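go over this chain:
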Amino acid sequence: MFLRNSWYVAARSAEVGRKLLGRIVLSEPVVLYRREDGTPVALEDRCCHRQLPLSMGTLEGDKLRCGYHGLKFDASGTCVEIPGQTAIPPQARVRAYPLVERYRWLWIWMGDPAQADAALIPNWWWAEHPEWAFTQPEQIHVQCNYQLVSDNVLDVTHLAYVHASSIGASSITEFPATVEREARLVRLTRWILDRPPPPLYKKAGGFTGNVDRWQIVEHVPPCFSVNFAGCKDAARKIDLMAFSAPTPETERTTHYFFGFVRNFGLRDAEVDAIFSGDMVRVFKEDIPVLEAQQRSLELKPGAPAIDIKVDAAPLAARRMLHAMLAQETNSGSDPC
């Protein structure tokens, strides 16, 4: 179900400090914290003795003590102390996960640590560039499978219906989209020419007439998407991007991490409010739809369904992910 040899967003940087944070990632319990020097740590959130979550324990310096029988673990997951005995069994350890802090997120590798190449983290450099403003809202916990989130991001025609009052417009379906496939990427491109801007873009850019608008989504399996969007007329242009990183919690639930970058209104409080308020509300408009889909799928698994033209990009992304899952399974490598 999950591609394990991949990076996933485990948390926002701001969430993780000296207080233990327990989180489920790919149906595995993980505990996150920072050492005294600020370095983030991710360990299996399950003591090797009697399975109590380590997130119910305490930090002592850089070490984590279990709250049940007091076993103490260092940042590598090795047990370094068992109260009441001097001998420590060699198997007294918990798993430590590779962790990288980038773009104000903590990225975790759930598979084979030997394959944890930081170069495989999506190159979302705009989030750290001084000529772009980055807005990072709190993640949303969604009661649906993470692939439904990726399908939704790759199907921008739904904007005309789900987001009609914000970033949607009926003109979207007038213009065809193209879908391109590369070795590890699916790209959807649509241009909407000489049409009124949707309400939120009109507000953000101050447009008074028709605009040319673009919708370009680049998706990298298992779950990373960038939605390049914007509008322009003869006098002005706005460029913005939405990052989507829906991390599977379980097969039925998702930690939906997302963020926005823009190259206009960098020090404008009114524009900041659009992205920290209005755009977040846009993303939340999708949640009832996604959760209702999940409920329908669970109520009647295997119910008849059809595909239409707008499904080309989501289907291409799913096929690419399934091929990667098959390759990982056939490799026979044990990620643990």
The first helix runs from residue 146 to 154. The chain has six helices and 18 strands. The mean pLDDT is 93.
